[in-house]
Amino acid sequence: AGKPLIKASRAAVINTESSAVTVDIGSMVKTIQKANVTINCQVAGVPEAKVTWFKNKVKLSSAHHLHDGLLLIANVSLSDQGLYSCKAVNLHGEVTETSQLLVLEPPRPLPYLEDLTAVLSSAGPSTYSVLTSPSGKKLTVSPGRSALIGCAVNGHPTPNITWLYSGEPISLRHHLLAAGQILQIFNVSDFTDGEFSCLAQNEAGVLTQKMFLAIQEYRWSVNKLTACSASCGYRGVQLPQLRCLLDSAEVNTSYCRDIPKPSLQPITCNRRDCPSRWMVTSWSVCTRSCGGGIQMRRVTCQRLTAKGISVPVSSEACAQVSKRPVDTQNCNRQPCVEWVTSSWGQCNGPCIGLRLAVQHRQIFCQTKGGTYVSSDQCSVLPRPLSTQNCWTDVCGVHWRVSLWTMCTATCGNYGFQSRRVDCVHIRTNKPVMEHHCSWRPRPSNWQRCNITPCENGTLLRGGEAEQCRSRREGRVVSQKCSTGPC
Q: How far apart are the C-alpha atoms of 296 and 286, rounded to whole Å?
């Protein structure tokens, strides 16, 4: 006698193929949908125990298939997942054991992928998108563009997704989004034409979906010929026109710049004799530059042959085709004009440097007959100056210097000589105020001279030294000074 005992198992049972599976209570059961699952709860004990079944701690009703400690869950679906408990009770106590039931759903394809729509809206209109499928889809992409490839699958538990390119893990530049459900390719030109596949796998099974990538190629296409370059004669040619195509659609030729152009040969066309026509030379130079002149040209009737030779023919042959061009015409009928000027005005302006004062005059355009006309009519002629620098009396001054005086010593360190510096008028040579010459540097009025060592180092007395100092400082001294060193 004692409280009940339950035969329990700690096994993990996974059923992916059988339509029926039986386990002892305490086991974990993973099974595919629509299978029949039986959970066995064998109880021992005296007195005999009463068995009660619970799902997620809620007592199961008698509607479930309960018989001799067995619980039958028929035609399992996702709603049957949960914890199933067997509770045995007698006078001495109770005991409970629990099994977990997980329903497996193998990966299966979905018709759409919401995450792909959201990512595509933020990527912009230049990004291609496609969903993989079990049978495989084809995506044709322009070079250099980006692409989003979605793997729309469902299953329980959620399948793990592995992306492959040509059967191998992807090593080139890419990015995974939405928990691996979206493969982002930044530049399809990193790849070549090939198969992308997503492998969706969980405990219930494996699903492979595919997508074939085709990268469009730019190519040159020879289009229709250009119009013939001549309607007759010997030079008519046509050139084939090249177009740059991308999947039969014409694009800018810059996309094909790295692709070798096909060799194109010009095709001759309209190589036949031309109808007779008037031929004219260039007009001769006008006989007059203004006031009405005449210019002439030569007019002949010729026919250009298919060999490129111009053959003279009678004027009647051309007259039947068109009117004879004129061979003489009037030219340069505009009146003859010239620039005329008024007298120069007064010379004005401060004298800061040479020729800085200015004077003005008026400029007019007139005909040879003396009629004033618009200046535009003289625009082809060199226009005279309307302003020029001039010389004023104030500017007509300079520094006048006299000759240097004799040196005050024949040797030593104190000999000097001087000269007179005056500001004088150039024309009258009369002195004026020195500030009139200030725009030029004032010449020096004294300088040292005969600075050579003396043979006798005679010392000077006080009076003679004073005389030397006076000379050195530029003062006029009439007394005799020693020729020795000062």
A: 8
pLDDT of residue 318: 92
Cα distances (angstroms) measured from residue 273 to each of 2, 199, 369: 130, 75, 56
Q: Token digits for 6?
A: 């339950």
pLDDT confidence of residue 463: 40
Q: Cα separation of 129 and 139, whole Å?
A: 8
At 351 the pLDDT is: 63
CA dist 41 and 88 (Å) reads 9
At 465 the three-state DSSP class reads helix
Least Cα distance to 281 among 240, 245, 324, 327 occurs for 327
Q: Is 118 helix (H, G, I), strand (E, B) or coil?
A: helix
Give 3-state DSSP helix, strand, coil % of the chain, rounded to 5.
10, 40, 50
- The DSSP call for residue 482 is -
Helix (H) or strand (E) segment spanning residue 469: helix 462-472
Closest C-alpha to 56, from 99, 21, 25:
99
- The proportion of the chain whose per-residue pLDDT surpasses 70, expressed as a percent, equals 91
Cis peptide before 159 (omega within 30 of 0): no
Q: Could you give the CA distance from residue 214 to residue 134 in angstroms, rounded to a whole number?
A: 18
Please tell me the pTM assigned to this model.
Answer: 0.47
Q: Are strands 65-67 and 36-40 parallel, antiparallel or unpaired?
A: unpaired
Q: Which of 207, 194, 195, 113 is nearest to 159 (CA)?
A: 207
The owner of tokens 């869950």 is 73
Which two tokens mark 206? 């494996």
pLDDT in tens, 322-354: 999 999 999 998 888 999 999 998 887 766 555
Omega into 107 within 30° of 0, i.e. cis?
no
**CA of 95: how far to CAs of 48, 56, 91, 233, in Å?**
13, 16, 12, 116
Residue 219 is predicted with a pLDDT of: 85
The end-to-end CA distance of the chain, in Å, is 153
Is 219:153 a contact under the CB 8 Å cutoff? no
Angle at the Cα of 171 from the Cα atoms of 165 and 172, rounded to 5 degrees: 90
What average pLDDT does the segment 348-370 reach? 78
Q: Give 471 or 166, the one with higher predicted confidence.
A: 166
The pair of three-digit structure tokens given for residue 115, joined into one six-digit string: 């995450």
